[in-house]
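To close the section, here is one more complete example, presented without commentary so you can practise reading it yourself. The ligand is zinc ion.
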Amino acid sequence: MKGAFDSHFHIDRLGRELRLATYNLRELQGSAQSMDQSNCVHLCGAVANFCDPITYPSLEDVNFLKSQGIVTTVGLHPRHATGVRPATVDKLQEMLQWPEVVGLGEIGLDHTAPMEEWAVQRDVLATALGLLGPRHVLVLHCRGRHEARVFGAPRIPLLSVCGSCVKGAEDFRKCSLWIYQSRRKEEVYHGTC
Ligand SMILES: [Zn+2]
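Output:
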């Protein structure tokens, strides 16, 4: 079986989908045994991205994931922007201070949301960027309207907000940028800059 490293793993969403309240990889993998075995890989490690406030991890969760070779980032998905409250930002700030949390993200812009929400997404992105520390990897989400695909992905507004909120170009040395080219997950491109 091939080995693999999943650099963008929504383990909380997977658990919800499988109706399993666990971050134990063996249990999660065991529940997917009906899958075509030719598609199976041995997961050597992963980056778990928590960006849904409803499933933010506890420090115990983060340490349990670490014991399985999974590092954690925390953020705010732009599709949740209109529901963000001061308490959500406080919680995000608290988690980013845990040394075990290695990055901020995903955060970003998602133009599949109604246009009236785009300004709020920019505000939430700017607020979240204010929490970025020098040791954090930044995981950015950038998705255009479905019909516009890659050319409609709001890369310029995204980088413009980042540029005005993050001091110094050197702060961009660790950045994972996700640009959605289509709704098919296998066409998601992953780049670093
Ligand atoms: Zn994601």
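Once you have examined the tokens, check your reading against these statements. The pocket of zinc ion is lined by residues 8, 10, 49, 106 (CB under 6 Å). Confidence is low (pLDDT under 50) at residues 181-193.
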